[in-house]
Sequence to fold (1034 residues):
Amino acid sequence: MTFDKQIKRRDLLKTSAMLGIAGAAGSVAPSLLKAEPAKPTEIIVRAWGGPWVEALKAGVSDPFTTKTGIKVRHDLTEDNEIQPKVWAAVAQKRTPPIHINWDTTTNATKSALRGVCEDLSDLPNLKGTTDLAKPVGVDGYPIVNTYGYVYVLAYRPSAFPSGPPASYHDLLDPKFKGRLAFYNDGIGFHFPAQVAGGGKLDGIPNNMQPCWDFVSKIKTQEPLLGEDPDFVTWFQNGEIDAACTISTNALGAKRNGVDIAWTIPKEGAKFDTDGLWIPKGHSEGDLYWSREYINHALSKESQQIWLDGLGLPGVIPGLRPPPGLAGDPSYPTKPADFDRLIRISGKIQVENESEWFSKFKAIMQG
Amino acid sequence: MDILEAAFSKIWPKKGGFWGPYLMLSPAILLVGLLVLGLAYIGDTSLRTLDTSTFLFSEEWSLANYERALTEPFIRSVIWRSILGATIVTMTTLLLAFPYTYIMVRTRSAFLRKFLLIALFLPFFIGQVVRAYGWLIILGKQGIVNDILGLIGIEPLRMLFNYPSVLFGLVQYMFPFAVLMLAPALTAIPEEIEAAAESLGASWQETMLYVILPMAKSGLIGAGLVVLTLSLTDFAMPAILGGGTQDFVANAIYDQFFRTSDQGFGSSLAVLLIAIGSLLVWIIFMLVGAGTLALGAKDK
Amino acid sequence: MNKVSAVSASNVCLQFGDVHAVKNVCFELEEGRFLTVLGPSGSGKTTLLRLIAGFQQPDQGEIFIKGQTVRELAPNKRSIGMVFQRLALFPHMTAAENVAFPLKMRRFNARTISDRVKEYLHLVRLEGLGSRKINELSGGQQQRVAIARALVFEPDLLLLDEPLAALDRKLREEMQLEFRRIQKELGVTTINVTHDQREALVVSDQIIVMNYGEIQQNATPLEVYRSPSNPFVANFVGVTNLFHGMLESLKGQQVAIRISQQTLLGTSKSENSALTQGVSVQAAIRAEQIRLFRGKSENRECEAYFEGRVTDVIFEGERILYELSVAALSDAPIRIIHHDQQDFSTFEVGEMVFVGWQSRDMHVFVVD
Fold:
């Protein structure tokens, strides 16, 4: 394994430096040859706040500290706001502000394409992961995906007395005018809309007219457009009846007592992943222990606790689903569960999302 | 001032006499210098295009970002929405702030004056974002206004997440700025002037139109410029009260910087926003004369 | 009186809280006359003017202009031109625009406006300066614009609210004469408010002296000066010496009063019933009605005659003000204005001199 070799090479480098010092002192301690790289006092993990960071702390960070004695500090800067800072640090060859970025795979893919991610393909625990852990559209493992999530169609059961909406076409009923919600850049909705508009998934990205046609139809319903926290608020305040949103938001609202359910309509639902990655520019020791952290996050015990908190399917087989989510469409585990989930390569997404977002906004705000 | 000078003489003994005043200017120069530096950086970035296969910016300059900004229908509509919105907000704010300020300045009742001042400053201490969320609570489907309407049998209305609600939020946000800018201008007009106009045969409407408004011109222009530029560049109100459907230029810039990671395109939008703002200010100065703000040389 | 007064007030009162700003004011003013309301600050003179202009409503009483009550008329409906204390010219307009303003507001025929503006700028001697902005005019020129603006629409009444107060003395005196000239030329009924007794005497046909909101005297300038109706007027107009004493006896208008062991003679206009023996009185004599002599022999027709010591000499150009201490009058300070400039005979501080006056010049008032 290249991994072992690297470690040895690193040990040697370290040791020779030590030898220099030790030699000057006149004696050589043999135990130093076997030493791990020096431990940093803390490592900084960028995370999302609220229940997200709580879950990470319980499942990964706290056990990691117990095991290694290294403190973990969570930096709650928004993912999209830390990105330029990290990029700037790498470009200027400074130490990046964080050790590990917990990021959406799409966002992380941009950093991977830019070449600011350390390669993680030799982490020992990767051997035990499912295909989900591998980022699509980039070489190797600049990112390790740690779980997946579904952009479900969340709805208020009282507004759909005859059962869950079977198709996005059901939302075109005039009674839902002004009572639908989507992400303000349309993320999660582009791909099902492509299907709903009569197009094919392999038309992405080159023939997406069906998607825009269907978005234009939805636009006549005057939907609300927002971001994650908005959906929960809007459901809570009775502003909307249905929304295309990440299942976590719907689950959060349900756990807060909002009357809400979710489904995957026949057009399917976008499936995406979040992951962990390490920006380049850290010292050997810091890098070593950051990799250890991610490796630890891929252990079954960590995954189980972390993802129970998030209610999302992990990348290690045989995890126990959180209560109530077994068999839920937002918690795919078996190959059949993935049939109606749409997964598009991160590379295609990052290369085209700017255009998709503009196009979606142009239609919605036109 | 004395303390400052004493401090200066300590760190800058004797011969500092000549440099002292310039030294005091240095924080301002530093600030302006940093701003210019930032602008230069933004200008440079705006000329570089993003390669989405490597997420690196081009080495050479091109106007591609500007071309895209001016041709993309979405950006065009965002720019137009910002300009129109800022104009409407400015007009409305001035229209509302003028009588408010007038009464506040002229009233003989100390109670009324205090009340108007407190009513003005109370929301000032509450940040823009909190205020916007306040409107969500007040104007929402299950908000106070709809509760009251419900009492008289009116179905809940959608009052939020549209252009008018963004403009409404902006007007409410800009109102104190406008009043604070207008107050000194109106205070400077002696009451005797109004009595004079009246004794010369002017009705109060004519006094307002021909005497008070022209004399308050500098205040109105100043307040107008502040409100116009602040509204034009506002982010929070369109983001919160617009329901994602009413982006202003600042929102588009944010998206480019932080969502699609295209700082080049975002920078070009920032440069355009600065250009539009400057152009509007320039037009106003051309129409009314820069001397209005006592900035330029004296008339004649 | 069968002729209708241009302005009259009957029993006008206005209170601010507990303060009587104007109390029981009654007066009549004939057409074309120049009335000055004279009084110290706080005397209610400006309030009276604001009541006439309509900026304030009286609590009681009525104001009539040309015999008609103006109670229901807003200021812009009254035919009154007013020149304000700080002029209140419109700084955003030129001089001509200022003068044209009332014509436009009062809907004068648009075609006649510019001619009329020119005519009035000529009247106030500002021809050719009409296109100047207000801040490009001197203080005196601004005064003239304010006058032209107040008169251009030919109001029934012109009100002057101490417009000259802020001017330096020379300009003020020049403008006083200018006001008088313009007023005479147009024959406009005018009410002027001032605290400057000299201005009042110079320009007015009629003077009303006010204090504490009440009229103290309403008479011609000569009368106000020569026979003030009470010690306040006597003291406020001109330089006056006041003595406190006791009434001894009375014979017609001539009274004998006792002031610090001395018996002095004077005249009184007070009601005879008030003039009872032993009542407290004040005696007033103007500084210029006292004569100064170097020796006793120079005493010609003086009826009162004392020796005093010069304590101060103030040279004021055309006159000299002496201050004396007279032992016979308990060292009361006496001020004397000396106009005899022919021989430039002056007295030194410390010099013993003789003072004398005629008893008709000493006005005796009963103290309330």
